[in-house]
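Late entry, written up from scratch paper. The run itself happened at the end of the previous shift, but nothing got recorded in the book at the time, so transcribing now.
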Amino acid sequence: MRVAVLYNDVDRASCDAADADVLVQTDAVCAALSRLGHEFTSIACTLDLEDLRTKLTYTKPDLVFNLVESLGGSDRMMAATTLLLESLSLPFTGAGTLAVVLSGDKLRTKEILSENGIATPAVYHRCVHQWHNGNVHVTPPAQFIVKSVFEHASLSLDDSCVSKWTSDPHTESCLQSLEERTGQPAMAEEYIDGREFNLSLFERNGAIQVLATAEIEFHDYPTGKPRIVGYAAKWDDTSIEYRCTPRRFEFQEHDSQLVEQLQTLAVRCFQLLGLSGYGRVDFRVPFQPHSSQTVVPVVLEINANPCLSPDAGFAAALAQSQISFEVAIQSLLDTALRVNRKPALCS
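Output as recorded:
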């Protein structure tokens, strides 16, 4: 099979670890395709879609492996690639345009989940100057965290993003501060102190499979330090956040019901957002003041095209589930050939 591997063009000499990660993914996928016996070519993508169209027309791939995470420095533009591929009727791995757009908009994702009875943190943003959860206005939380509405990879997410709520003007000020740092729209979200779980999923033989459940632990965190998986925890291997947030897959018997609940919710999220091939759902499970209280997992984010780097969570979950990276890559190819894409942005 002839496969074109698309990735967003980055400056190897000047990009940071988060941006350079797509190159690591590309190398890993190309190596797997080679071991599987496929022909492949890698294509760096920019906002010049006409150039990409020309390269695809010349290459004539049977299928596209889509690793594009952003274009022109913005995650919001990644859907331009899938839109072009759909217009060319080229099968490609991962989510289609509709799912990319929906999952890439954290506010819209929250609306979809709330409409379907799945818990998400309360939110405050510029369109609705009140704290709300779904269509219901709620009391401001004790603490909140500000984050980008559209960007991933924990863009500029650090301890300064977590604040005690004192007033709505204070919340507005925090939003403005993050927007000035990033140049991107921001939102304030209820900060939930609790356990963090990542659930990776992928389609295999037409069925959605939940991989081994992962929990991110916060080891030896100083008292009062926010328990968040921010930019440093993901990309700065010299930081305390990176060293003190290991991933674990083993759980005690008393967690078995919770793990089953998380897996069921993850599949539901995958279906609601219309993901394809693979995905990841991140949860927070609030600490229980009293053991008699019912635990309600809260969805933080849904990632339509999770990172495929060998040291990332998806690859770790594959290994824990005793599924080789090559089997997963082939499954993504098989799913891409089987999926009948709906017209972009149509339900």
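Confidence is low (pLDDT under 50) at residues 343-347.
(Scratch paper discarded after transcription.)
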